[in-house]
Specification:
With about 230 residues, the chain is of the alpha/beta class. It is built from eight helices and seven strands. It has a seven-stranded parallel beta sheet, sandwiched between helices. Helix 2 links the parallel strand 2 and strand 3.
Length: about 230
């Protein structure tokens, strides 16, 4: 996949999956624009000094003005990859309206605002690619038991992705999402030490799927919510 001289926004780029995605994009020749919320995220980001990585922050992706500023600073946007989000698990009886709203803000609102800004930029530039991140409970609702607010927010991301993909296809913009199961990250291993970690999808593997969907090599796939479950 050839990303030479193509500008790509990667939200959540300083996280575990983000490290893999940004690393692969840079290797493929992309210029990556990576917003962050807290200074500590930027300080520990291994590619912070790379010439092809532009760290932008602090950026609050739930705020319209901040998202508009982010995309206004990107020349000729080719792809926008939205990894930013949040997770919470709790029984429904212990989940407040504020908990639900937080999940919607972190997962749906960030995707909505970034997609809107990316579409506007790509229409001016003649097309591009967008990739959102849903989750397994977005496709398999029963697997969201014990995390209903999270499952609802990710299901909304999946529906939103398909709707936007249909709307903007004729503008040369292909929109898709991936739906990971539990990814193999240090944080997830620490949280579930007795799980079968070998069965979990690796972040590099999920990143490879994202890179294809966001690449010029993807000429026809749109409106998909692609399961990336590994063997889990």
């Amino acid at each position: 996949m050839d990303y030479r001289n193509r500008h790509v926004v990667v939200t959540g780029g300083t996280g575990a999956l983000g490290n893999a995605v940004v690393g692969a994009l840079v290797q493929a020749g992309a210029v990556c624009h990576v917003p962050y919320l807290r200074a500590a995220e930027a300080e520990r980001f291994p590619l912070r000094e790379h010439a092809a990585v532009k760290l932008i922050g602090p950026s609050e992706l739930t705020q319209e003005a901040a998202v508009e500023r982010l995309y206004a600073g990107v020349p000729t946007l080719w792809a926008s990859i939205h990894l930013a989000g949040g997770f919470a698990a709790a029984p429904i009886g212990e989940t407040s309206k504020a908990d639900l709203q937080k999940q919607l803000d972190l997962n749906l609102v960030t995707a909505f605002l970034c997609c809107r800004a990316a579409v506007n930029a790509m229409v001016r530039g003649g097309g591009g690619r967008i990739v959102n991140v849903a989750a397994r409970p977005a496709l398999e609702w029963r697997s969201g038991a014990g995390m209903a607010a999270y499952a609802a927010s990710k299901a909304a991301v999946a529906a939103f992705t398909a709707a936007v993909a249909e709307e903007v296809a004729k503008a040369g913009i292909l929109v898709n999402a991936v739906a990971p199961s539990i990814m193999d990250t240090p944080a997830n291993r620490a949280a579930m030490p007795k799980a079968d970690h070998a069965a979990w999808p690796k972040v590099d593997e999920v990143a490879a799927t994202i890179l294809f969907l966001a690449s010029p090599d993807n000429k026809v796939s749109r409106g998909g919510v692609v399961p990336v479950y590994g063997r889990s």
